[in-house]
Design a protein that fits this description.
By secondary structure, this protein is of the alpha/beta class. It contains eleven helices and nine strands.
Amino acid sequence: MPKTYNELYLRARTALKAAGVESYALEARLLASRAAGKDKEAFLRDLRLYTSDETEEKLEALLQRRLKGEPLAYITGDWEFYGLPMKVTQDVLIPRPDTEVLVDTALKALMGRKMDARILDLCCGSGCIGVALAHELPAARVVMVDVSESALEVSRQNIRLNRVNRTVCLRADALQKPPMSIGEFDMIISNPPYVPSFEILTLDSSVRDFEPLGALDGGEDGLMFYRSILQYWLTALRPGGLMLFEVGEDQAASVRALMREAGMQDVFSVPDTAGIERVVVGRRPKN
């Protein structure tokens, strides 16, 4: 029997609520509109219209994926970061609100000073950081680097989606020396893998079972990438330039110490909205 879009939405909402999904109403609407091939406004407009068996089958397939724990962002392929639309796949981490603190800190450091800065987004993943900075700083030149070619393809999609200019992608490994041709930057910003290896299995199943392990695993103590970036990539930072890291909970003090050991000056931390030290900043000496 034909069903209306509203009936499909209510079916999904009931199933998600019963499964304990916190944002069950929002997720039901997103899944139903995805199955219908409609944007949010068109879906709400057409709630009273009858839909097809094909749409109902598509919704059921999407709903079963969500009920098995797959994150909504991977099912829909869309997410939002810093007010911008982002494409995501299982080749990249889903952008988190915590990372917006990293972008805020970078903008505060650059606004009114060097609007045409050359910025390196290292371990860029989806490219959400670099794209957000390029969007907010149209005169800046942004290079987004990742070791994963699949992740870089997602970054390229987000560059095109958000129509940011002066932004390019480059494949390189943060655990090795940078390519000689990469040049120097006014800012290096990075949200590297920082989960200690032994903690991977303790993560929520939605993270552990679906998000890319390579974007999570920070080595034995979670600090492997910070050490390597400070060892190898400081040569790509201009004297007086800034390096910004996102860090995990309880890692800020260790990363500050690593920065100081590497000779960085003016090292400090920035808390997120929960009061957790989320960003660590340091400046390369001018001489």
